[in-house]
Amino acid sequence: MVPVQYYLLLSAAVFCIGVFGILTRRNALLFLMSVELLLNAANINLVAFSNFHGNLTGQTFSLFTLALAAAEVAVGIGIILVLYRNFKDVDVNEATTMRW
């Protein structure tokens, strides 16, 4: 059996990659992919601790998190399409010009 520490190390690495992607990228698609990495890191933790404690609660929360991620992608793609239609680019810095 694989120790829980390996799962936590994997989750921390995926989370750090996601945070790095959010802080350094200006492309809206890469920004959404980085948010997905953050959610998947949380899912790894939930499933690992659920397996460690021998119950299914963490796996159930993980399924809810996947549903939340799917809804987030649907809304995010809609925003990206509007951003591309208005500015012909998906740079998130251009979205500040959409204010009043």
Automatic annotation (TrEMBL):
Organism: Halorussus gelatinilyticus
Protein name as annotated: NADH-quinone oxidoreductase subunit NuoK
Annotated keywords: Membrane, Oxidoreductase, Transmembrane, Transmembrane helix, Transport
EC number: 1.6.5.11
Membrane-protein topology: Multi-pass membrane protein
Location(s) in or outside the cell: Membrane
NCBIfam families given in the database record: PRK05715.1-2 (NF004320), PRK05715.1-5 (NF004323)
InterPro entries (UniProt xref): NADH_UbQ_OxRdtase_chain4L/K, NUOK/Mnh_C1-like
GO terms for MF: oxidoreductase activity, acting on NAD(P)H
Family label: Belongs to the complex I subunit 4L family.
A Pfam family that the UniProt record links to this protein: Oxidored_q2
UniProt superkingdom: Archaea
One GO BP: ATP synthesis coupled electron transport
Transmembrane segments: 6-23, 30-49, 61-84
GO cellular component, one term: NADH dehydrogenase complex
